[in-house]
Amino acid sequence: MNVLAIDSSNLVMGVAVVNNQKVLGELITNVKKNHSVRLMPAIEQILRDVDMTPNGLDRIAVAHGPGSYTGVRIGVTIAKTLAWTLNKELVGVSSLEVLAQNGRSFNGYVVPFFDARRGQVYTGLYKSANGIVKAVEPDKLTMLDMWLTQLAKLGEPLLFLSNDLDKHSEMIDKYCGALACLAELTGHNPRPSELAWLGLQREPVQDIHLFTPQYLQLAEAEAKWLANRERS
Amino acid sequence: MGDIMSKFDKKTMILGIETSCDETAAAVVENGTKIRSNVVASQIQSHKRFGGVVPEVASRHHVEQFTLVCEKALEDAKATWSDLDAIAVTQGPGLVGALLIGVNGAKALSLAHGLPLVPVHHITGHIYANRLAGNMQFPLIALIVSGGHTELIYMKEHGSYEIIGATRDDAAGEAFDKVARTLDLPYPGGPEIDRLAKAGEPNIKLPRAWLEPDSYDFSFSGLKSAVINTVHNAKQRGKTVDKADLAASFQESVVDVLVTKTMNAAKAYHVRQVLVAGGVAANQGLRSSMAKACEEADMPLSIPPFSLCTDNAAMIAAAGTIGFLKGTSADMALNGKPGLNIEEF
Ligand SMILES: [Zn+2]
Fold first, then answer.
1. CB count in 10 Å sphere of residue A172
2. Are residues A43 and A68 in the same domain?
3. Is A131 in the same domain as A100?
4. What percentage of chain B exceeds 90 in pLDDT?
5. How far, CA to CA in Å, does B231 sit from each of A220, B175, B198?
6. Same domain assignment for residues A175 and A137
């Protein structure tokens, strides 16, 4: 089975083609450039490089969020459209779960996160044991200080994975101290090959038309509207 | 010139895609003139809650609707991917997050089926809605009136656009929306004013901004302020203004300027046709005044039927047909451009 993996949910852009257990190609950048301009050319290139036509794919795996609203939408729109129009399977995987896979050789809790501004992060709690990384708590949007307080109470080693680590390392140290482990330089980019690998193990979505991003947050205007309606 | 035996009469089948604002739309058009299907998923009910289009909400709806409208467009047209010659998509102007959905979806379709990708300027789509309803005769003057645009465009032939006049402040549709809000009319306000104006008399004196004598530019902010002041002053004197009369007076003022400037341009540029396009082209007051002025001047007039005045993808496919036959195409790096300029197009 050939899987095309697509991740544009955050700053890192990744595409990969995986054939069952073999990673045929993988392209990752971690630069502040426009996904709308670069994602389709990257897909075109990786397919060409591994000598595959779009029709040669069996499944598309996409990082469905959380992350940048626009970034998530670009990836999901492309994945959805390709899967629908080529009549292929579609699988959505959490962007955080993809990143958490980088903690596979660690034994203990794995904490991937993406900065979400104003002191907030998109994060989740994962546990790594015997080379398998599994979710313990669902992904969420939370204040980082509250999250770290909660994590410290676990009293076990915590592996933090994030390209935004620099920004928050002091706070992590303050709340989690010696429990905190920071991954190596190469551990912070979500890998599209991991996304493909996760995508291979999941059940494809039933109805591609109904597939939507996991924003983990209402649009601001909608949240306000709901709050107003409840008040009146 | 004109449509007679030119390269623009070739047999084509184009899928059009439009997501520039709050409609997710896909359509199949044959030979740039015949609508095979025209599917629009309107978000108006959703945005009504907020009293206007919320960009983030619009983008979310586009992702939900995109593949559905494409599927329906092909089904209705009884067409398969191999029947198509190209995919035309609105590149701009519009809401950036909304444009991105259509552009990236269109790119995915283009890659999947090896079909050429044709970027389309949204306003040229509104203009080419006219070709779906009749002939275009060149040279022509097109009056573009919508929520975001008020422009006079000179076209000497297919695919050639020269802006000879534009609004210096509010677009005509914007003025309609703001006045509707002042009169507490429901969203969207334009059609409400049109409906109300029919019941009223244009007996309230409101300004008309003619600007310099030779200018084809427009200005509606002064008129808008005058309406707000009228309502405000009446309130202070403990009186109420007749909403229908005010709507009629406001609409007459807008229409008067639009029609007069269009007819002046038509004369000065010696055109063979006047064309009206954009959401406000659905306004009854504008349609009848323009029809009367053109009849008096013995000038052929083209206005799309109501159904093609608001945003749709058939018009994008129609405009895209011209782009396709001119050899315009984009690669996988195509991006949405919120401020796309029609003259550079
Ligand atoms: Zn429009």
1. 22
2. yes
3. yes
4. 91
5. 33, 15, 19
6. yes
- For the ranges A56-70, A167-181, B2-16, B271-285, the lowest mean pLDDT is seen at B2-16
The band of B1, judged by pLDDT with boundaries at 50, 70 and 90, is very low
Whether the pLDDT of residue B226 is over 90: the answer is yes
What range does the domain containing A124 cover?
A: 96-187
Q: Is B68 at the interface with chain A, CB within 8 A?
A: yes
DSSP assignment of B136-189: --SSEEEEEESSS-EEEEEESSTT--EEEEEBSS--HHHHHHHHHHHTTPPSSH
Of A40, A73, A219, the CB nearest to B63: A73
- pTM, rounded to two decimals: 0.95
User: Which CATH number characterizes residue A69's domain?
Assistant: 3.30.420.40
Number of structural domains chain A divides into: 2
Q: Are residues A104 and A81 in the same domain?
A: no
Which residues on chain A place their C-beta less than 8 Å from a C-beta of chain B?
34, 36-41, 43-44, 54-55, 69-70, 73-74, 76-78, 80-82, 84-86, 208-209, 212-213, 215, 219-222, 225
- For residue A108, how far is the Cα from the chain centroid? 20
Measured between beta carbons, the chain A residues lying within 8 angstroms of B100 are: 36, 70, 73-74, 77
**CB nearest to B108's CB, from A82, A212, A213:** A82
Q: List helix spans (H) across B237-283.
A: 243-268
- Residue B311 has phi, psi (to 5 degrees) of -60, 130
H or E element at residue B345: none
Residues A37 and A88 in one domain: yes
Confidence bin at B259 (pLDDT 50/70/90): very high
ipTM: 0.97
Which residue, among B111, B113, B115, B335, would best test binding to A if mutated, counting the most A CBs under 10 Å from its CB? B111
Report the binding-site residues of B for substrate.
144-148, 177, 190, 194, 283
Across the interface, do A77 and B104 touch by the CB < 8 Å criterion?
A: yes
- Is the CB of A82 less than 8 angstroms away from the CB of B111? yes
Q: Domains of chain B by range and CATH? A: 4-128+309-325 (3.30.420.40), 138-303 (3.30.420.40)
Q: How far lies A150's CA from each of A93, A147, A165, A175, in Å?
A: 25, 5, 18, 9
> Pick from A36, A208, A222: which is nearest to B67 by CB?
A208
